[in-house]
Design a protein that fits this description.
Layout: H1 3-7, H2 15-29, H3 39-53, H4 56-65, E1 85-88, E2 91-94, H5 113-121, H6 129-132, E3 138-143, H7 145-150, E4 152-158, E5 161-167, E6 176-178, E7 183-188, E8 195-197, E9 200-208, H8 209-214, E10 216-222, E11 225-231, E12 240-243, E13 259-266, H9 273-286
Parallel strand pairs: 3-7, 9-13
Antiparallel strand pairs: 1-2, 4-5, 6-7, 8-9, 10-11, 12-13
Helix pairs in contact: 2-3, 3-5
Length: 287
């Protein structure tokens, strides 16, 4: 196998080009996405190629000796039996092992390719060794919108015992919190008027037609209380105002998102004869 051909890059490709090529090929052949019979083999090939070409020392050995540099008994193989470690692009990896589900498959001195995928793309593949290990016990906890945003301590039953669990501020629906010996999946009840996307909050504010035309000041709610907003004259329906730092804190960094206020102009379906006359005069005045 030619590692450059496997990734679809030239021998002069830069590190960023190699990473971009691996991203494309890994997504194309990952068995979670590609159900063809050749997907698993192709995915292992592109991952093995990436491990070599992304590491300057391994790349130099490959350019000099070819794939033989990493075969057993070749220039780059570990000598002796048992588990041997070598430095890979993501830290120490171990040779001479078999992986559950791929018994007898020789990775040729390289780590589990599905774990490389996890480290590169940021989420776990069920094909990885870690994904195939014994699953941790998973429990659910139900939170209100405010509890998820602000954080809370709640009593919940874990392994038959009532425990007080501290939930950090900023967790979101579907998020899993890992504790020492169990996982806790968060279920958040929707808010009646706030809409959350990640750490940002969206709120629609109805304003009258006259307020949209003339301008003025309105009060809008945020997760931290009411704030006053100035409305410019001539504001159109759909105009959005960004309130920096008024969103949800990230549970790991405590950096806050933003709140977006979307103005919706309330146009009455019925008007009195007097109001109709005034609107007609206004239209003539504007023209």
């Amino acid at each position: 196998m030619d590692y450059y051909d496997a990734l679809g890059v030239s021998k002069t490709a830069s590190d960023s080009e190699i990473k971009a090529a691996y991203r494309r090929q890994a997504l194309k052949w990952h068995p979670d996405r590609n159900k063809s019979t050749e997907a698993t083999g192709k995915f292992k090939e592109v991952t093995k190629a990436f491990e070599v070409l992304s590491d300057p020392k391994k790349k130099q050995m490959y350019d000099q000796y070819g794939e033989d540099a990493f075969s057993r008994g070749g220039y780059g193989s570990a000598q002796g039996g048992g588990q041997n470690s070598q430095q890979g692009p993501f830290g120490n990896v171990y040779t001479n092992f078999s992986t559950e589900g791929f018994e007898g498959f020789d990775f040729g001195g390289f780590s589990d390719p599905f774990e490389i995928f996890e480290q590169f793309f940021g989420f776990q593949s069920p094909f990885s060794k870690r994904g195939r290990r014994q699953r941790r016990e998973l429990y659910e906890i139900n939170l209100t919108f405010d509890e998820a945003v602000k954080g809370v301590e709640k009593d919940t039953v874990i392994k038959g015992e009532t425990k007080k669990i501290k939930i950090p501020a900023g967790v979101d629906n579907g998020m899993t919190i890992r504790f020492s010996d169990f996982d806790l999946q968060v279920k958040v009840k929707p808010h009646p008027y706030f809409r959350r996307e990640g750490q940002d909050i969206y709120f629609e504010k109805d304003i009258s037609y006259s307020l949209a035309v003339l301008g003025g000041v309105v009060e809008v709610p945020t997760i931290d209380g009411m704030v006053k907003l100035k409305i410019r004259n001539g504001t159109k329906s759909g105009t959005t105002v960004r309130l920096r730092g008024q969103g949800v804190a990230h549970p790991q960094t405590y950096h806050k998102g933003d709140q977006y206020v979307i103005f919706k102009v309330d146009i009455p379906s019925r008007v009195s004869s007097k109001a109709k006359k005034l609107l007609e005069e206004l239209e003539q005045e504007i023209e």
